[in-house]
Amino acid sequence: MKFICKDFWTTVFKKQIDNLRTNHQGIYVLQDNKFRLLTQMSTGKQYLEYAPKYLAFTCGLIRGGLSNLGIKSIVTAEVSAMPACKFQVMIQKM
Q1: DSSP letter at 25?
Q2: Can you tell which superkingdom this protein's organism belongs to (predicted)?
Q3: How many whole angstroms separate alpha carbon 91 and alpha carbon 62?
Q4: Given pLDDT bands bounded at 50, 70 and 90, which one contains residue 51?
Q5: C-alpha–C-alpha distance, residues 94 and 8, integer Å
Q6: Of the candidates 65, 54, 68, which has an alpha carbon nearest to the alpha carbon of residue 28?
Q7: DSSP 8-class letter at 7
Q8: What is the average pLDDT value for the chain, to the nearest integer?
Q9: 63 Cβ neighbours under 8 A, 6+ residues apart
Q10: What's the Cα-to-Cα distance from 14 to each of 36, 49, 50, rounded to whole Å?
Q11: CB of 38 within 8 A of CB of 82?
């Protein structure tokens, strides 16, 4: 996951992820406080319901990156306040 947070995120979004948390049971939460694809949208709650559509592509990028490393995962995203977002990565046991 450090690879995703540092190298992968920096290559794609030109910055590192702001926060990485884990429960040590295969669930990781990646937090980006100024997510690049959401910063162009209003910072209010006006477009909050449309934000998850912009995060679906990034969920696929994370899942694909992990898949190429041989790690099967489920990635979901949530936005509570623009332009911050959280990605939850659940590593699946093989």
Answers
A1: S
A2: Eukaryota
A3: 12
A4: confident
A5: 24
A6: 65
A7: I
A8: 90
A9: 73, 74, 75
A10: 9, 26, 24
A11: yes
* Token pair 């977002």: residue: 85
For residue 79, CA distances in Å to 70, 84, 92, 93 come to 28, 6, 24, 27
| Closest among 44, 30, 39, 46 to 78, alpha carbons compared | 30
C-alpha 50: how far from chain center: 16
Highest mean pLDDT of the ranges 27-31, 41-45, 79-83: 27-31
Compute the half-sphere exposure of residue 6: CA atoms within 13 Å on the CB side of its CA.
Answer: 3
